[in-house]
Write a structure and sequence with these properties.
With 169 residues, this protein is mainly α. The protein has one domain. Helices cover 67% and strands 0% of the residues. The longest helix is centred in the first third of the chain and has 22 residues.
Length: 169
Amino acid sequence: MPYLLCHEFVCHAFQGAKRASDDPFAEGWMDRVALNLHDFWADELFPSAPQLAREEAHFLSALVRTSFDGLEDPHPVTRAARTLGWMAADLVEQFFKPFEHGFGEPSLFTQLSIQMNLEVTGVDHRGLFVAEVMRTRRDPKLRLLLNSRLREVAEGVGDVNGVLNFFAD
């Protein structure tokens, strides 16, 4: 239950775009952020069993991304969107790992993602952003553009709009 509340609050309470269950950014990318924050807060929230809370949250998060045979519409679409957003977020989160300085605050990835979620962009733009992040896996020029924008954020000179629109250059 705490993870579900964390998901709803982190993913949707301050979401800039209209809510759509097939939004890969809100349902996948930001779910990864919600899970990271749940893990970050688990020692405080569940002092008697923080690891159990983390394990159960990870299980539930994975479950809502899993596509089972016989799922009725719209679940196959929403689960695919969640998975796509989750995988794109992983690429960006991995980029920021060398820039992390400690355990006292949420990660750079988490901070940037929360800022991006606040931006008032349409669901279509958020979907395009996620798709373009995924495309960086096979397009080195696009990967260079994204990495450049992410490095600027890590160095404190870039902004959220530069990342959200990295593919427009």
